[in-house]
From TrEMBL, chains A, B, C:
Pfam families: Hexapep, LpxD
GO MF entries: UDP-3-O-[(3R)-3-hydroxyacyl]-glucosamine N-acyltransferase activity
Designated name of the protein: UDP-3-O-acylglucosamine N-acyltransferase
Keyword Repeat included in the entry's annotation: yes
Gene name per UniProt: lpxD
InterPro entries documented for this protein: Hexapep (IPR001451), LpxD (IPR007691), Trimer_LpxA-like_sf (IPR011004), UDP_GlcNAc_AcTrfase_non-rep (IPR020573)
Keywords: Acyltransferase, Lipid A biosynthesis, Lipid biosynthesis, Lipid metabolism, Repeat, Transferase
Active site: 270 (proton acceptor)
Catalysed reaction equations from the record: a UDP-3-O-[(3R)-3-hydroxyacyl]-alpha-D-glucosamine + a (3R)-hydroxyacyl-[ACP] = a UDP-2-N,3-O-bis[(3R)-3-hydroxyacyl]-alpha-D-glucosamine + holo-[ACP] + H(+)
Length: 362, 362, 362
C-alpha cells in the first residue's frame, strides 16, 4: 500500500528532531553519564526528585520534554530557557541560574562541544557495513580491504589504495592511482582523481577533487591548456562540503591541511595551500597559489585572489574581496579587504555624508 | 554512418527554437484556442484575412513566421515589433497598437503568463514513462508505484516511499527512509537523504539535499562534528536548481515552503526556513537558522548571515550582504544591506566627492 | 597487503610534480628539441659543458634538478632564479641575464606558452582508449563510433550522435538527441541535455549543461514554469569547469562561443551568448539574455544582470556587479560596476574622509 505522501509530510513535520526514519538511537543515559561524556558538571534540579531519572533523547528548547536533553549556546535564544520543559539542559556557567527549577543541568565552559558529545551519545555515527556491492567496478591492482563499504555503481580505478574501514558511497568515482586513508567517508557521486587522502577524511556528495586547474596560455590559434601536473593532498580529518571543487596543482600540489573544514560550493584553485584547521564557509573561493596559515577562517562568499599569503588565525569576513596579503590574526572585511573597524567606519561616514545637504543627492 | 558534427552544429544553429531533436510538439491551434488557454483577448489582424488561420509553433519576434506565435514582455525589445513577421503576438494592452497590421494579437495584462501557457500548449511536459530500468537498485521495504519512471543506475534506499507518477532520473540516489510525493521530477544525479518531499517537487541535476549541515565545535584535538539530527522538508511544488545544496537541520528541520523556487548553485544552511513562494536566484546563499517569510525574493549572489529574520515580500538585491533582520516589504541592496534609495545615493555621493578637488586622489 | 596510507601520504608529499602514480612521461629531450617545440631561443649555460645534455622532466624552480626544466613567468617569483638548480629555465628576455651561469635557458617572449608546450612534450594528454564499458546504456539510434571511449555506467539517450575519438567518462548522462563533436572529453558525472557540442569540447566533472532556465510567470495559484524551448550550443574548443551550470535557452539558444573557457562553479543563465575566446573565472554568474562579445574576461565571483551587452575585450573585475552595458575594451570593477580608476579613487577618498576629524566616526 502506498502511504499518502501528504500525510507523511504532515506527520513528519510534527515529529521533530532525530526522526526515527533517518536516525538510530542509543540510550537511555543518566545525567551523570552524559555529564561525564560532556566533561561538564552535573547539577540536579533545584526542585523535585531527580534520582534515577534517565534521558532518552535530545531536542530543541522549544519542544524537548522531561526525558530529553537540550542546550543553550547562543545568547540570542536565552529567553527560551524560561519556558522550556527540557529535563536536562546544557548551559554555560553564566546561564546556570536561569535553568528552570525542575530541570537538571550540565554546566560547561564549552556548552556547544558538550552538546555535540551528548547528541553523539544518543545518535552515534553508523559504522561502515563491510562489503562490496556487486555492481561496483574495481580496477586492476586496486587495494580495497574487506572492512570497507563499497556502494552500488562505484568506480575504483587501477592501482587505487584504500585504507581499512573506509566507506565509498554510491556512484563515487575514484581515479587511477588515488590513495585514500582509513575510516574515510566518501559520499555519493563524489569524483576524486590525482589525489592523496589521509585518514578520516569526509567528502560530501558531489565534491570534485583533483580535476585540472584553470591554466592556459594564449597561443596563436586560441588558448592552449597548460598541463596540470600536481596533485590534491587532503590531510587527515579534512572535510569537504557538497559540490565543492578543488583543482589539482600545476607545478606543485594543492594541499588542504589536517583538520580543515570546507563547506558547500567552495572553490579552491590550483597550487593553493591551506594550513591546519582552516575553515572555509560556503561559496567562498580561493584563487591559485594562495597560501593560508593555520586556523584561518574564510567566511561565506569571500574571494581571495591568487599568489597571496594569509597569516595564521586571520579572519576573512563574508563577501570580502582580498587582493593582497593579510597579517596573522587580522580581521578583514569589505571589497577590497580592510580591517573590520575601518570598514564599518567607512560605512558610517558615507551614510553621514549622503545625508548632509549639498554633498549628496539628497 | 556518422553524421558530421560540424554540419550538425551549423544546421542546428539555424534551427531556432523548439528544435525537433529535443522537443515534442502538439497543435496546430487556432488563435481563439490559444487566447482561451492564455486567458487573453484575441484580436484579429487589422489587414488581411485571418479566418481559419492555424498556428503550428512558437518563436522569437526576430524569426517567427506567419504560422508562429511570439510575444513581447520586456519594453526593451519593443522595437522588434516593427519588423516582426510573427503571425500572432502576445502583448500587454500598452503595446497592442504597435502590433503589425497583418499580425493577430492576444492582448493580456499578464503577457508573460499568457505566453507561458501558449508555449506549453505547443510543447507539453512529457509525462512519466512508467517502468523501472533493470539496473536500478531498490532497497528493502521501499514503496515505488508502477506508475513511476525509474531510470538507469538509480539507487533507492531501504524504506523509501515514493508517490504515483514520480520520475527518478538516471543515477539519482535516494537515501534510506526518504519520502517523495506524487508527480515529482527528480533529475539525473540528484542525491537526497534525510528528507521529506511534497508533491510536484522538481530537483534539477546535481542538487544535493539533506547532507550534514556545517556544524562543529572546537575540541581539544581539533574540530568535532556536531550531530545534524534534523531533516530537509521540501513542501509541495518546490523547485531546486542544478548543483544547489540544502543541508539538513541540526536540531530542527530545514524547510523550503510550498511553491518556492531556487535557482542553480544556491546554498541553504541548516535549520533555515523559507516561507511560501520565495525566489532565490543563482549563487545566493542563506546561512543557518535564518527565517524568510512568504514571497521573499533573494537575487543572485546575495548572502544572508545566520539567525536573522526576513519579512514577507522583502526583496534582497543582487550581491547584497544581509547582516541583520529585514522588514516585510523592504527593498535592500549593498553589503552591508541598506534600502535601495540609500545605496544609490551613497554611490552618487562618493562619485561626487571623488571628483571634487581636494577631497579625492585626483 | 594494504599499504599504510600514512606512509603513502608522506611519500607523496615529497614526490613533487608529475607523480608517476598519476602522470605518464615521455622523453628525454635535448634543449634544442624543447626550444623548437616552445618556439623559443635556446641559450646554452654560460659555464660548464652543456653538449648532449638531455632533460627528463619538469619541476618548479625551488626543486627542479640538473636534468629538469623549469620556468619563470611571474615577476614576483624572480628571486627564486638566484637559488635554483634547474638545468634548463624558460624565461622572458628581461630575465635571461638572471639565469644561473650553469643553467641553460629557453628565451621566449611568451614564456608561459613556451612552458605549456614543453610540459606537454614530457606529459602528453593520454589518448582515448576505444571501447564501451559493458555497463553503459546506449539508446536507440544513437551513433557512437568505435573510436570513442565510453566509461562505466554511462547513459546515452536515443538519437544521440557522437564524433570520432570522443571520451565519455564514468556516469555521464547524455540526453536524447544531443550531438557531440569529435575528440571531446566529457568528464565523469556530467549531465548534458538539449545541447549541441562542437569538436574538442571539454566538460569537467559535474558540469550541468542544458537543464531548464529559471523562468516562470506568476499565476493565480503560484508560479507557473515557462517552457524553455531553446538549446545550449557549445562551439568548438569550449571548456566548462567542474560543477558549472549552463541553462538552455527559452526562445533562443544559449551559446558559448568557440574557444571560450569557463572555470568551476560558474552559472550561465538562459539565452545568454558568449563570443569567441571569452574567459569566465570561478563562481562568476551571467544572467539570462546577456550578450558578451569576443575575448571578454569575467573575473571570479563577478555577477552580470540579464539583458545587457558587454563589448569585445572588456574586462569585468572580481566580485564586480554589472548592472548595465559595458563598452568594448573597458575595465570595470565594483558593485555597481565602474571603471577601475574610479573604483580605486573612491576607495581612497572614503578612507581619507573617514579619518578626517568631524566627518566620520573617528
Amino acid at each position: 500500500m502506498v502511504r499518502n505522501p501528504e500525510t507523511a509530510l504532515g506527520d513528519q513535520k510534527a515529529a521533530g528532531v532525530a526522526n526515527a526514519r533517518f536516525f538510530t538511537r542509543s540510550g537511555p543515559f543518566s545525567g551523570e553519564e552524559l555529564a561525564a561524556a560532556a566533561e561538564g558538571e552535573f547539577v540536579p534540579p533545584r526542585e523535585g526528585a531527580e534520582t534515577g531519572r534517565r534521558y532518552v533523547g535530545i531536542g530543541p528548547l522549544q519542544s524537548a520534554g522531561a526525558t530529553e536533553v537540550s542546550f543553550l549556546d547562543n545568547r540570542r535564544y536565552a529567553p527560551l530557557l524560561d519556558a522550556t520543559r527540557a529535563g536536562l539542559i546544557i548551559v554555560a556557567p553564566a546561564f546556570a541560574k536561569r535553568v528552570p527549577a525542575t530541570s537538571a543541568a550540565i554546566v560547561s565552559s564549552t556548552p556547544y562541544l558538550a552538546w555535540s558529545r551528548v547528541a553523539r551519545m544518543f545518535h552515534p555515527v553508523p559504522p561502515a557495513k563491510p562489503g562490496r556491492h556487486a555492481s561496483a567496478v574495481i580496477g586492476e591492482g586496486a587495494v580495497v580491504p574487506a572492512s570497507c563499504e563499497i556502494g552500488p555503481f562505484v568506480v575504483i580505478g587501477n592501482g587505487v589504495e584504500i585504507g581499512e574501514g573506509t566507506i565509498i558511497g554510491p556512484h563515487a568515482v575514484i581515479g587511477d592511482g588515488v590513495t585514500i586513508g582509513r575510516d574515510c567517508r566518501i559520499g555519493p557521486q563524489v569524483v576524486v582523481s590525482h589525489a592523496t587522502l589521509g585518514d578520516r577524511v569526509t567528502l560530501f556528495p558531489g565534491a570534485r577533487i583533483g580535476q585540472d586547474g584553470f591554466g592556459f596560455a594564449v597561443g596563436p590559434a586560441g588558448f592552449e591548456s597548460v598541463p596540470q601536473l600536481g596533485r590534491v593532498v587532503l590531510e587527515h580529518d579534512v572535510e569537504i562540503g557538497a559540490n565543492s571543487t578543488i583543482d589539482r596543482g600545476s607545478v606543485q600540489d594543492t594541499v588542504i591541511g589536517a583538520g580543515s573544514r570546507l563547506d558547500n560550493l567552495v572553490q579552491i584553485g590550483h597550487n593553493t595551500r591551506l594550513g591546519k584547521c582552516c575553515i572555509v564557509v560556503s561559496q567562498a573561493g580561493i584563487s591559485g597559489s594562495t597560501e593560508l596559515g593555520d586556523f584561518v577562517t574564510v567566511a561565506a562568499q569571500a574571494g581571495l585572489i591568487g599568489h597571496i599569503k594569509i597569516g595564521t588565525k586571520a579572519r576573512i569576513g563574508a563577501q570580502c574581496g582580498v587582493m593582497s596579503d593579510v597579517e596573522a590574526g587580522a580581521d578583514v572585511i569589505g571589497s577590497p579587504a580592510m580591517p573590520f573597524r575601518e570598514f564599518f567606519r567607512n560605512v558610517a561616514t558615507l551614510r553621514k555624508l549622503s545625508k548632509k545637504p549639498g554633498s549628496g543627492d539628497e
